[in-house]
Amino acid sequence: MSLRLFSSFIKKTKKPCINCTNYIKYKYRNPYDEHYETEPILGNCRLFGKENLVTGQLEYEQALICRLNETKCGEKGKYFNTIIL
Prior knowledge:
This protein is an alpha+beta fold. The protein contains two helices and three strands; from the N terminus they run βαββα.
């Protein structure tokens, strides 16, 4: 049995997804839902996903899933693009 002593420490990322040009913010169907939602719904990443074979629409993956998977963006933000204002 292995014991992970440091697994619960929080590391602050320098590249949060909400500051990336590929981040797609979740859009609520009803504008009032955003104000009354207890937890915000995570957005999607424009770089990763697939095309629905029936409807032809693009279905993007959640940004958190992409950041946890090292073959995609990973914790370091491999495909991170800064928003230029």
